[in-house]
Amino acid sequence: MQPYTVEELESKAKHIRRKIVEMVAAAGSGHPGGSLSAADIVTALYYNVMRIDPAKPGWPDRDRFVLSKGHAAPVLYAALAGRGYFPEEDLLSLRKLGSPLQGHPDMKKLPGVEMSTGSLGQGLSAANGMALAARLDGRDYRLYVLLGDGESQEGQVWEAAMAAAHYKLDNVTAFLDHNRLQIDGCIEDVMCPEPLPDKWRAFGWDVQVINGHSIKEILAAVAKAGEVKGKPQMIIAETVKGKGVSFMENQAGWHGVAPKPEELKRALEELA
């Protein structure tokens, strides 16, 4: 597959944002804010970065993506559907009884989901295990992990950070969706995890800080991370919760609330 241009990826990210608000509205529940903030990162990974084959979701040499902040499942589902893992019309079954598109990703239910997540803090540990498996099996696939900044209050995140550096897992690249908001408000008020760049460097990681809504910066950061040897890589992406929908942007209240019909209409107009 030929790489997409930055402009094409920006268009795909907007499409993913439309699908996020549509599916959460149809479900009547879900997490739009943190899904919208991560849309550009997930778009870049699934369309231009990761070595994957939707026709062969179990291909042993595929790159793996772990959504550690599992409540942002809508952004992952939209990307998987866009890449052809399942039909886009299935997105509207989000959270419906019997649907494989559960409120949090389930690797046993949906092709393309590499790890069942939702209990915060566990994704990086799982990715470390996959990265070690690649080393033992002599395979060159890479692990990409998406963490939340509120999730960084979890102790297991830092145990996993220490382990990844200890084992020199240079096939692990993590993104931190740094939108500064969590369900209860600002991360600084709930339990401040800052200074995050300094902490990740102190734990032995290569660290970059980028604009998480710039496709160009995301692609450049991933390329640079791929050249790092002997260290895992952390890309701290400065983002806006609810990005793309004006009344959701920077509003903690949109962490886990579905838009009403009139709000959905307004959101889709803004994302047209």
TrEMBL record:
Cofactors, names only: thiamine diphosphate
Pfam family, one: Transketolase_N
SUPFAM superfamilies, per the entry: Thiamin diphosphate-binding fold (THDP-binding)
GO molecular function, one term: transferase activity
Domain of life: Bacteria
Residues annotated as domain Transketolase N-terminal: 13-267
Signal peptide: none
InterPro entries: THDP-binding, Transketolase_CS, Transketolase_N
Keywords: Metal-binding, Thiamine pyrophosphate, Transferase
Recorded family membership: Belongs to the transketolase family.
Protein name listed in UniProt: Transketolase
Organism (species): Desulfocucumis palustris
